[in-house]
């Protein structure tokens, strides 16, 4: 077996799916859930060794004794002892092919599985393309700006840059001339300079919006590296005006349109997590409803393909522009067929969606043709 080039990193949907779909050969795919802190220090290494042994058996059956003779790579035998843990890690996936190994950490706690074949088994990753198992929540509170990483395990506070104001009150004072900050009037012995009366005007509110926009631009820039490295969706919490201002300056492509509207001032991280979970579930449900509507329209236009024997060549020839697959695995040969459809579609840049069930309406997979069965693309004539 060639010397192994091993990379260990958090799941990045675009980068890793692009890489995995392109590789061919003697491909080994391992999926292992992380069962939290309650799992003993020796239990995960034991499960890891069992998965490696199962892969060796499957390599022998699929490719012969020579393919399995140098399995597993030495670097993987001790990996189970040092696996990362945390609320952002629900499971790990190991992909080995032709001397290259990728160890991917993801927030999804998938079922344990070992797969060997001519291409990687990517079924468990597909739902993360459409419905990531984690998202960020940015709470724009008057007294406290918070960034939370939300997973199925709960919410974890993420530290913000030290050079940013800690709350929106500070933000509106950020880099303002002294005479625009606040006008104070002493009103008796109790007023010692620690309190004051603000004389506000509509012009003051306009200035406040200008400073908030400047601050939100800096906040957006400060978060960009973190957000783009993992590409989790970003949800906002705040009052309506703040949400609109932040959305206007945002440059992150995965900002959700669904927000938590209202001041998060008195909400704990647990409260925010619960509200965000409700909004996230509603967003996912609405997405699936739109997919159902698209399938119905395609069916009425004779553009829907549900028969597997027809669907596979249509995908491989690039005649499908939207492939809809079930998220849940069945545990039989259908899984490998659906996996091959996904790999073939992604290689051609076909849009792939995942439906949260064991099947999609009408069968184990469905595809929408670029053109109806009786239609053919018409080339524009040169003038």
Secondary-structure topology with pairs:
Blueprint: E1 5-10, H1 13-22, E2 27-33, H2 43-63, H3 65-68, H4 74-77, E3 91-97, E4 100-106, E5 113-117, H5 123-130, E6 135-140, E7 145-151, E8 154-158, H6 168-173, H7 202-230, E9 234-238, H8 240-249, E10 260-261, H9 269-300, E11 304-305, H10 308-316, E12 320-326, H11 333-347, E13 351-355, E14 366-369
Parallel strand pairs: 1-4, 6-9, 9-10, 12-13
Antiparallel strand pairs: 2-3, 2-5, 3-4, 6-7, 7-8, 11-14, 12-14
Helix pairs in contact: 1-11, 7-8
Any key phrases for this structure?
3 domains, 383 residues, Nucleotidyltransferase, domain 5, 11 helices, globular, Translation, Eukaryotic Peptide Chain Release Factor Subunit 1, Chain A, single chain, 5-stranded mixed sheet, 60s Ribosomal Protein L30, Chain: A, alpha/beta
Q: Overview of this structure, please?
A:
This protein is of the alpha/beta class. It is 39% helix and 20% strand. Helix 1 packs across helix 11 and helix 7 crosses helix 8. The longest helix is centred in the last third of the chain and has 32 residues. It is globular and about 75 Å long.
CATH architectural arrangement of the largest domain: 2-Layer Sandwich
**What is the H/E order?**
EHEHHHEEEHEEEHHEHEHEHEHEE
Structure summary, number of beta strands: 14
Separation, N- and C-terminal Cα atoms = 59 Å
Mean pLDDT: 81
DSSP strand content:
15-25%
Structural class: alpha/beta
The number of helical runs is: 11
| CATH domain class of the largest domain | Alpha Beta
What would the principal axes of the Cα set say about the shape? globular
User: CATH H level of the largest domain: which superfamily?
Assistant: eRF1 domain 2
Helix content: 25-40%
Rg, rounded, reads 26 Å
Biggest sheet architecture: 5 strands, mixed
Query: Can you list the strand order of the major beta sheet?
Result: 1-4-3-2-5
CATH topology of the largest domain: Nucleotidyltransferase, domain 5
Overall domain count: 3
In the predicted model, the low-confidence regions spanning at least 5 consecutive residues are 175-200
């Amino acid at each position: 077996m060639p010397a192994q080039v091993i990379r260990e990193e958090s799941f990045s949907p675009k980068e890793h799916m692009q890489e995995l779909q392109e590789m061919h050969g003697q491909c080994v795919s391992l999926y292992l859930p992380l069962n939290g802190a309650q799992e003993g220090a020796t239990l995960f290494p034991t499960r890891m060794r069992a998965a490696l042994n199962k892969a060796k058996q499957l390599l022998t059956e699929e490719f012969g004794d020579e393919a399995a003779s140098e399995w597993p790579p030495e670097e993987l035998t001790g990996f189970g002892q040092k696996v990362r843990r945390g609320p952002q890690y629900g499971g790990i996936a190991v992909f080995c092919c032709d001397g290259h190994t990728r160890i991917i950490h993801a927030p999804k706690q998938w079922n344990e599985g070992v797969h060997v074949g001519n291409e990687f088994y990517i079924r468990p990753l597909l739902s993360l393309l459409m419905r990531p198992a984690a998202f960020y929540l940015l709470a724009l509170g008057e007294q406290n700006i918070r960034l939370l990483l939300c997973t199925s395990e709960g919410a974890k506070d993420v530290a913000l840059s030290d050079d940013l104001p800690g709350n929106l009150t500070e933000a509106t004072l950020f880099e303002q001339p002294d005479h625009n900050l606040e006008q104070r009037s002493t009103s008796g012995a109790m007023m010692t300079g620690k309190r004051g009366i603000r004389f506000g005007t509509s012009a003051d509110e306009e200035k406040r919006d200008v400073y908030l926009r400047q601050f939100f631009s800096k906040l957006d820039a400060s978060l960009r590296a973190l957000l783009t490295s993992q590409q989790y969706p970003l949800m906002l919490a705040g009052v309506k005006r703040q949400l609109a201002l932040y959305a206007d300056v945002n440059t992150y492509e995965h900002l959700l349109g669904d927000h938590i509207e209202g001041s998060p001032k008195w909400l704990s991280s647990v409260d925010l997590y619960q509200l965000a979970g409700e909004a996230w579930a509603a967003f996912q449900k609405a997405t699936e409803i739109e997919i159902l509507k698209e399938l119905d329209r395609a069916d009425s236009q004779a553009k829907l393909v549900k028969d597997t024997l027809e669907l596979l060549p249509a995908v491989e020839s690039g005649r499908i522009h939207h492939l809809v697959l079930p998220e849940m695995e069945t545990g039989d040969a259908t899984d490998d067929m659906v996996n091959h459809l996904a790999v073939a579609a992604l290689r051609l840049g076909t849009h792939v969606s995942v439906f949260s069930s064991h099947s999609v309406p009408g069968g184990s997979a469905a595809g929408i043709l670029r053109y109806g069965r009786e239609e053919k693309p018409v080339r524009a004539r040169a003038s």
